[in-house]
Design goal:
Strand content: 15-25%
Structural class: alpha/beta
Helix content: 25-40%
Largest sheet: 8 strands, mixed
CATH class of the largest domain: Alpha Beta
Number of strands: 27
Radius of gyration: 23 Å
CATH topology of the largest domain: Metallo-beta-lactamase, Chain A
Strand order of the largest sheet: 2-9-10-11-12-13-23-24
Shape: globular
Length: 514
C-alpha cells in the first residue's frame, strides 16, 4: 500500500524554483519489461549489505521487498584488502529486478559493468545529472585500468541503454506495490536520497549526505517519515572543521608573493568544481591577486565541470545568481601536456587529478614543483595512507613519485619535498557526524537504523550515538549480513527534533512542501 499523501517532507523553497512541485499522484512507469510482475510476496522482506559495511567503499545493498529485488548502488571496492570483491557478487545479478543509484562517485557505481557482464539486463534508475557524470567516471576507469577489470566500450553502451532518469521530488510507481522517490542529498550534482515504499513499509537509503553551507548545491533535504533507514557514516561521530576558504586565499596569496605556485590535488567529481567556484570568489573579493592563472588539466574533471554548467537549475540561490560560476578571467581548462608546459611561470594554481597523487597528472606536477620551497602543495581532501598523498600528508619528505609516461611505461623518480605542505579541512562533500546524527533526529519514529559507509569504529560509534541520543535501534551491519525487515517494532524518538539549519527567507524551511 502506498502511504497516504498527507505525509510531508521538509525541503527548501529553492528546490521548488527549479523542480516541479512534488507530485502527490504516483506516476506509473514500468521499469521491468523483461520480467512479469509478481502477483504476491513470496519471501519475507530483507536487506543484505553487500558492500560499505564497516568500511567505506563498494556501496551495494540488496533490498528484497518479498516480490522484487532492488539493488541500491553498485560501487567499486577501493581499499586494497577489499579489491578482491570487485566483480564478485554475493547474489545472482540475473535475479535483480531493479538497480537504483544514489549518485555517480565510483565507490557507488564502479561495479555496474561487472553486473552487466554477469547478466543483469534491467533498468538502472538515476537522476539526469548522475547519468551524465557517470559517463565520465566510468570512462576514466576504462582509460586508467586498461584491462578487463575496467569497463569496456560495449559495457558502457549497455549501461547507457539501461539508464532510466527520473526527476527529483516525484513519486514513481515502478510496478505494482513498489514506489520510489528521489530527494536532494546535497552531496554532489545529481546526488539523491532514495525513498522506497512497498507493502506497508518505507525504506530510506541516504547514499552520501552533503554538509551544511557547502557552495553550489542546495542543503540536504529533511526527511521525516520512514520505517527503516540506511545512513552513511564517513565521519562517524566526528565533528569536522568548517570549510575555511579565506585561509585558502591567504595561502595562495602568500605563495604568489614569494614567487611560487600552488598545486592542489583534486578529485574530478565535486572537489574540482568546488575549488573552481571558491577561487572565483577569492579573486572577486580580491583576497588573491587578480593576475594569477588557474589551470584545470584533468580531462575527466573538465568534462564533469561541463556537466555542472549544464545543470544550473540545481544550484543553490547564490550560485544560481551568478552568470558563469565556473568561468572567470584567468581560469583555463587545458590538456595535461599544455599544463605541464607552463612550469617556470610564477603565480600559477594547478588543480590536477588525482586527489591522492597516485595517478594522472598531479604526480608530474609534484615532481616539477617539489624542489622549490617557494611553491606550496595544498591538501583539501582525504589522503589514504597507502598513496603518495598519504605519505606526504603523514610527514614523509623523501618520496618516490610515479606516473604513467605517454608510451604507457611507468616512470619513477625519488624526490625531497622542499615545497611547503598545507592541510585544509572542511572541504569534504560529506556531512560530519554531528550533522548526520541531527538529520536522523528529524524522524519522529523508526524501526531500525543501519549505519553504513564508514570504517568499523566510526560506524559503530555513530550507531551508538544515534541510539543514545534518539532512542532508535541502530547497528553497523557487517559485510554480507542479511537482516529481516518484518520483525522490528516501531520506536518513537526520544526528545525533541533538532533545530533546523538557519535558512534565509529565500531558503526558508517549509514543511508543507509535500
Amino acid at each position: 500500500m502506498i502511504p497516504a499523501t498527507t505525509e510531508f517532507m521538509a525541503t527548501r523553497v529553492t528546490r521548488r524554483q527549479f523542480l516541479k512541485r512534488a507530485s502527490l499522484v504516483t506516476l506509473a512507469m514500468t521499469l521491468q519489461p523483461w520480467r512479469a510482475v509478481r502477483a504476491a510476496a513470496v519471501r519475507p522482506p530483507s536487506i543484505k549489505f553487500c558492500g560499505a559495511a564497516q568500511f567505506v567503499s563498494g556501496t551495494s545493498h540488496l533490498l528484497d521487498t518479498g516480490r522484487y529485488r532492488v539493488l541500491l548502488d553498485c560501487g567499486l571496492f577501493m581499499e586494497p584488502e577489499n579489491e578482491q570483491f570487485n566483480g564478485k557478487f554475493s547474489f545472482d545479478p540475473q535475479q535483480i529486478d531493479l538497480v537504483i543509484l544514489s549518485h555517480a562517485h565510483a565507490d557507488h557505481v564502479g561495479n555496474l559493468h561487472h553486473l552487466i557482464r554477469q547478466g543483469y539486463r534491467g533498468r538502472i534508475v538515476t537522476t539526469d545529472a548522475t547519468r551524465d557524470i557517470f559517463d565520465t567516471v566510468a570512462g576514466n576507469m576504462m582509460d586508467r585500468k586498461g584491462d578487463s577489470r575496467g569497463p569496456s566500450k560495449e559495457d558502457l553502451e549497455t549501461i547507457a541503454a539501461s539508464f532510466k532518469p527520473v526527476p527529483y521530488n516525484t513519486k514513481i510507481q515502478v510496478v505494482d506495490n513498489l514506489v520510489m522517490r528521489y530527494t536532494d542529498a546535497g552531496h554532489m550534482l545529481g546526488s539523491a536520497f532514495v525513498e522506497l515504499w512497498f507493502d506497508e513499509t518505507k525504506f530510506v537509503f541516504s547514499g552520501d549526505i552533503g554538509p551544511h553551507d557547502a557552495p553550489i548545491l542546495c542543503e540536504p533535504s529533511i526527511l521525516q517519515r520512514a520505517d527503516y533507514l540506511a545512513i552513511e557514516s564517513t565521519y562517524g561521530d566526528v565533528t569536522r572543521k568548517k570549510e575555511d576558504w579565506t585561509r585558502l586565499g591567504t595561502i595562495i596569496r602568500e605563495t604568489v608573493e614569494r614567487g611560487g605556485s600552488v598545486l592542489i590535488p583534486v578529485f574530478a567529481a565535486e572537489k574540482l568544481q568546488r575549488l573552481i567556484y571558491r577561487i572565483r570568489q577569492l579573486k572577486q573579493a580580491e583576497l588573491v591577486p587578480k593576475n594569477i592563472k588557474v589551470i584545470s588539466d584533468s580531462s575527466s574533471g573538465n568534462e564533469i565541470t561541463e556537466v555542472y554548467r549544464r545543470y544550473a537549475d540545481y544550484y543553490d540561490p547564490t550560485a544560481k545568481s551568478l552568470t558563469k560560476p565556473f568561468d572567470f578571467p584567468g581560469f583555463y581548462e587545458m590538456s595535461s601536456r599544455d599544463s605541464l608546459a607552463t612550469h617556470g611561470e610564477p603565480g600559477m594554481i594547478y588543480l590536477s587529478t588525482s586527489g591522492m597523487i597516485d595517478h594522472a597528472t598531479s604526480p608530474k606536477h609534484l615532481a616539477a614543483m617539489c624542489d622549490d620551497p617557494r611553491n606550496t602543495l595544498i591538501f583539501v581532501g582525504y589522503q589514504s595512507p597507502h598513496t603518495l598523498g598519504g605519505q606526504i600528508y603523514a610527514g614523509d619528505r623523501n618520496v618516490s613519485i610515479s606516473w604513467e609516461a605517454s608510451d604507457g611505461r611507468e616512470e619513477h623518480v625519488r624526490k625531497d619535498i622542499k615545497m611547503r605542505v598545507e592541510k585544509l579541512g572542511g572541504f569534504s562533500g560529506h556531512a560530519d557526524g554531528a550533522q548526520l546524527v541531527d538529520w536522523v533526529g528529524n524522524f519522529p519514529k523508526l524501526k531500525q537504523v543501519f549505519v553504513v559507509h564508514g570504517e568499523k569504529t566510526r560506524a559503530t560509534d555513530m550507531a551508538r550515538q544515534i541510539h543514545d541520543r534518539w532512542g532508535f535501534p541502530a547497528m553497523a551491519p557487517t559485510h554480507f549480513q542479511t537482516i529481516n525487515l518484518d520483525r522490528a517494532e516501531t520506536v518513537a524518538r526520544r526528545g525533541d527534533a533538532p533545530a533546523l539549519p538557519q535558512f534565509t527567507e529565500m531558503e526558508r524551511y517549509d514543511p508543507q512542501d509535500f
